[in-house]
Amino acid sequence: MLNIILFGPPGAGKGTQSSRLIQKYGLVHLSTGDVFRYNIKNETELGLMAKRYIDQGKLVPDEVTNNMVKDFIQRNSNSNGFIFDGYPRTIAQGENLATVLREMNAQVTCMMALQVDEDELVNRLLERGKTSGRPDDQDESIIRNRFKVYNDETSPLADYYNKQGKYIAVHGMGSIDDIFRDLCTAIDQVI
Ligand code: ADP
Question: How large is the average pLDDT for residues 82-102?
């Protein structure tokens, strides 16, 4: 299995690059943000609960997210592997991912971290908010809160995977095609 974590702050381009990568490498895409938004749209119990956190730019509690991810991975256990987009976002989620994959005799192959300046990110998110309909992209204070959560809770995962020799930094500014090419070059070196 090829299990790639696409990592980076909000607005780094994880969703855009994920959809290209799954096509090229025949992988299953797991975007926890997309799963939450789907549940919010359909007003499920999970969606109603997640919305309270997402609208404030906070993380959905680990236990909820971890259970959802475990279920998703187990339902797709026959696949060639996964692109994890927006997951893990805390060390506890990283531990959960390792456990779930280990039960399938698999593991994280690598974490590819998109590097983008914060000013560029805020502009991208506000721009996306004009058309995406996402409330969390339309308010600069919510965006700033998401960065704070990212810096406090999510960024330590870079070190966590670096210590396992799985961390790969990829330049995330420039054209979508150029970034995609760099990601593919990095993946082709580890498979
Ligand atoms: P972005 O990375 O651009 O902020 P996402 O679609 O990945 O967008 O996530 C949107 C929101 O969904 C996050 O701000 C958070 O509230 C929630 N969320 C997504 N993934 C997770 C996760 N792994 N753990 C907890 N909350 C999450």
Answer: 98
Mutate which of 14, 100, 128, 136 for ligand 1? The one with the most ligand atoms within 8 Å of its CB, which is: 136
CB 46 near ligand 1, within 6 Å: no
Whole-angstrom Cα distance, residue 41 to residue 174? 33
H helix or E strand, kind and range, residue 20: helix 14-25
Q: 68 CB under 6 A from ligand 1?
A: no
Which structural domain range is residue 109 located in? Answer: 2-185
Residue 92 located in a structural domain: yes
Question: 23-48 pLDDT, tens per residue?
Answer: 999 999 999 999 999 999 999 999 99
Whether residue 52 is contained in a domain is answered as: yes
Check pocket membership of 94 for ligand 1, CB cut-off 6 A.
Answer: no
The pLDDT of residue 156:
98
CA of 27 to the centre of ligand 1 (A): 21
Q: Are 49 and 80 in contact (CB under 8 A)?
A: no
State the Cα–Cα distance between residues 29 and 144, nearest whole angstrom: 27
Alpha-carbon gap, residue 30 to 41, rounded angstroms: 18
